[in-house]
Amino acid sequence: MALALLAGATSALAGPVLTLAPDWTFGNAAVSGSKNGFSDIVKTLHVDGNQMITAYLATKDQMLDIKGVSFVKLGAQGAPDESTRLAFTETLAVDWTKQEGTASERWERSPVRLSAGEWQLEVTGLRRSKSFGAYSGAVQADSQVPEPQTLALSLLALAAMAGLARRRKLGR
User: Fold this and answer.
1) What are the distances in angstroms from CA 67 to CA 49, 70, 122, 126, 133?
2) Residue 108 CA neighbour count, 13 Å, CB half
3) DSSP character at residue 101
4) Architecture of the CATH domain 19-144
5) Cβ–Cβ under 8 Å, residues 171 and 48
6) pTM for the complete prediction?
7) What is the pLDDT of residue 100?
C-alpha cells in the first residue's frame, strides 16, 4: 500500500507543467540593413513560469559577421530591461580578415532559467556584402519541469510511508 502511494505521488503532477514549447525555431533568410550593421529583434516569446532553456544560432553563409546574440526580458512598458540581458557565446568563430569562400559562425546559450514574462531574442552584426545574409537557430526548453506542488506531494507520500512504518513498529 505504502509503495503504491509513493509510486503514484512521484508520477503525478500536482501543478501544471510550464508552457514554453519544447522546440522553437527562428531565423532570417534575408538579413537587411546597411553594410555597417544590422540589429534584428527576432521574436518575442512568452514564458508562463520559470523555464530552463538552451539555444543556438548559426549563420548559413559568409555574408554575415554576427557580433552578438542575446535574450532580454521586456519590462512593464515593453522596453528591454538591460539588467536581464543573457548573452550567447560564440562557439565557432571565423576570422573574416583571413577567411575566403564559404564559412559559418555558431553561437550558443548554455542552460539558463528564464523567469516568467515576455522575453525578446536579439541578433546584431555586420553584413559583409551587398547581398542578403541568413541565419537560423532554435530554442530548446525542458517542457517537463513540474511546479513545486509536485515536490510537496512526493514529500507527503514519504511522510505517509514513515507514519505507516512507525505504526507497524508500535503495533508489535
Assistant:
1) 30, 10, 11, 7, 14
2) 7
3) S
4) Sandwich (2.60)
5) no
6) 0.64
7) 59
Q: Which of 19, 39, 28, 43 is nearest to 114 (CA)?
A: 19
Structural domain boundaries in the chain: 1-17+146-172, 19-144
Q: What is the phi/psi pair of residue 25, to 5°?
A: -100, 155
Nearest Cα residue to 126 out of 96, 98, 102, 101 = 96
Q: Which residues pair with 69 in a beta bridge?
A: 123
Q: Report residue 99's pLDDT band, with 50, 70 and 90 as the boundaries.
A: low
CA distance 40 to 132: 14
Chain segment 148-164, per-residue pLDDT in tens: 777 777 888 888 888 88
d(CA 103, CA 46): 33
